[in-house]
Write a structure and sequence with these properties.
Helix content is 60%, strand content 3%. By secondary structure, it is mainly alpha-helical. The protein binds protoporphyrin IX containing FE (HEM).
């Protein structure tokens, strides 16, 4: 009998992708199951996962911004040298001579600011929908750590251009750490490798920024996603068992009595990951990349004068996300720099263990959660107000100025 031969390109294609583009439900399941990148998803997800107004896509946006940061960051590493005598010149090269250098730097800079803001907003959405409650307590805690690592990641990157902005922002930022009781000065010294910001600090910040912290983020994000699946997918309101099922009593030959033939079964509200979830993810990806591209085209990342350790700008300001802290430090060094931020982080970590009720999950601003949501939003508003004051209303010697 003559053997049927398949064309070589087809053989190669099939050796990589075991399934054709799925058309039936069985093929959809099989594709999700056998593809390395897709099998991170379950075969089916609850409809609630796909409601754009529920998640606002913020978790995914955080992930995609991180991926953009890795790609642009690695490309920038081909040019950057973490040396106080070369770093600034390399920045000028990126601006002037390297093809697309300025564009690359803009993308990296705006994604970094974007990631800090979006991760924070994602945390707000998780809180305001009560999604930190059982069984997601530990994933919330992981999330708080992710937020802290993201902030630290952005902070360490701030120093690398080695211009006046970088130098003084980090000088102010690390001096805030120095206010911690007992270990403050030691912590500052370990961070800077010296008593002031210089070559040792630049090298330490560089290693933290390009190796230690990204590796920590990759690991933590992997555990974060794994937990989402183990916790049963995204949070959603508790299913309403339909009354008709509750009332219907079946008797099987008089031996078995139960409410419903399949007790505890609820209507299936899940949809296939392929193509529903994947299309939604693709949409968020395109949106995130487009936003970063537009920002990078329209606005250049700042680059000020080269470092002059003798000439601090007045006022010297920390990066914007720490300006709330700096504003509080101007009232009380200890409470502003350590006491209140420490309490805030402690409170955030403890949230799911303090609020152990199970109601109001899976809905924005659920009435049952009025108190918790009001407290949370008050703290968020205070933080934002302090950042706005620090950014726009503070002038030389940290005196009050009008931005208008
Ligand atoms: C690098 C930072 C982060 C990334 C990449 C990330 C990513 C994600 C993604 C993709 C989801 C599912 C989709 C969504 O809810 O939008 C998610 C869910 C979740 N995240 Fe994050 N996240 C990050 C930080 C945080 C933070 C700061 C918190 C809270 C403090 C947090 C807590 C949670 C929780 C509890 C869920 C489950 C939500 C639910 O079941 O409704 N995550 N995260």
């Amino acid at each position: 009998m003559k053997e049927q031969r398949t064309a070589l390109p087809r053989v190669i294609w099939q050796s990589i992708f075991r399934n054709p583009l799925p058309e039936t439900d069985l093929e959809r399941s099989s594709t999700s199951f056998t593809n390395f990148f897709l099998h991170i998803h379950p075969v089916k997800v609850h409809k609630n996962t796909l409601r754009p107004v529920y998640t606002l896509g913020l978790g995914l946006m955080s992930l995609f911004l991180f991926l953009i940061l890795i790609v642009t960051g690695v490309l920038l590493m081909f040019y950057y040298v973490p040396s106080t005598t070369q770093a600034y010149d390399r920045m000028l090269d990126l601006r002037g001579t390297v093809a697309f250098g300025i564009f690359l730097r803009n993308m990296h800079r705006w994604s970094a600011h974007g990631m800090v803001a979006v991760v924070f907003l994602h945390m707000c959405r998780v809180f305001l929908t009560g999604a930190y409650k059982k069984p997601r307590e530990f994933n919330w805690v992981l999330g708080v750590i992710l937020l802290l690592v993201t902030l630290f990641m952005s902070f360490t990157g701030y120093l690398l251009p080695w211009d006046q902005l970088a130098f003084w922002a980090i000088t102010v930022g690390t001096s805030i750490a120095g206010y911690a009781p007992l270990v403050g000065k030691e912590m500052q010294f370990v961070l800077l490798g010296d008593t002031s910001v210089g070559q040792e600090a630049l090298l330490r910040f560089y290693v933290l920024h390009v190796a230690v912290l990204p590796a920590a983020l990759v690991l933590l994000i992997a555990i974060h996603f794994w937990r989402i699946r183990k916790d049963g997918g995204l949070s959603r309101p508790a299913p309403k068992v339909m009354e008709v099922f509750q009332k219907k009593i079946y008797g099987l030959q008089g031996f078995v009595r139960a409410n419903f033939t399949k007790v505890g079964n609820t209507p299936d509200e899940s949809v296939y990951t392929w193509p529903n979830l994947l299309m939604a993810e693709l949409f968020v990806f395109v949106l995130t990349v487009s936003a970063v591209l537009v920002m990078a085209l329209l606005f250049n990342a700042p680059l000020e004068e080269p470092v002059n350790a003798m000439h601090p700008p007045n006022p010297a300001k920390a990066p914007w996300y720490f300006l709330g802290l700096q504003e509080m430090v101007s009232y009380s060094a200890f409470w502003g720099g350590i006491g209140i931020p420490g309490l805030m982080v402690g409170l955030l970590l403890a949230v799911p263990y303090l609020d152990r009720t199970t109601h109001g999950v899976g809905r924005w601003f659920a009435r049952e959660r009025l108190l918790a949501n009001t407290l949370f939003l008050t703290l968020v508003a205070l933080n934002v107000i302090f950042i706005i004051i620090g950014t726009f209303f503070r002038g030389p010697n940290w005196t009050f100025v009008s931005p208008f």
